[in-house]
Amino acid sequence: MIAANLLVGTSKVSVKKVSTFVNKLFKMSDGYLNDLPDGAESAKVKQIRVYINKTYDSFKRKKDSEASDASMRASIASEASE
Q1: In this structure, which of 2, 37, 62, 79 has its CB flanked by the most CB atoms within 10 Å?
Q2: Domain spans of the chain?
């Protein structure tokens, strides 16, 4: 999850390959948590789940922001070409 957090913080998550890789990291971490013998009730699993959820929320916000910025740039460019 640290790798996913680092990628979300430092790269353009709207790039398809980065977005795909980060999603795979989220899925891998979910699989890891589901396979733990303590189950979802242990304090460690709950703490990791909070970290995963916060990282995922940051990922979604950043991805939406980048898409919005790209849309705004395209709109401005189309108005300027008219």
Answers
A1: 62
A2: 2-8+15-81
Q: Is the dihedral of CA 52, 58, 61, 64 positive or negative?
A: negative
Cβ(33)–Cβ(48) under 8 Å? yes
Residue 67 to residue 12: CA distance in whole angstroms? 10
Over range 3-30, report the average pLDDT: 86
Cα dihedral 67, 51, 20, 14, rounded to 10, equals 20
Q: Does pLDDT of 20 surpass 80?
A: yes
The predicted structure's pLDDT at residue 6:
83
Are 14 and 63 contacting, i.e. CB atoms less than 8 angstroms apart?
A: yes
Per DSSP, the three-state class of 42 is: coil
The model's pLDDT over 25-71, given as tens digits with 9 standing for 90+, comes to 888 888 888 887 776 678 888 888 898 889 999 988 988 888 888 88
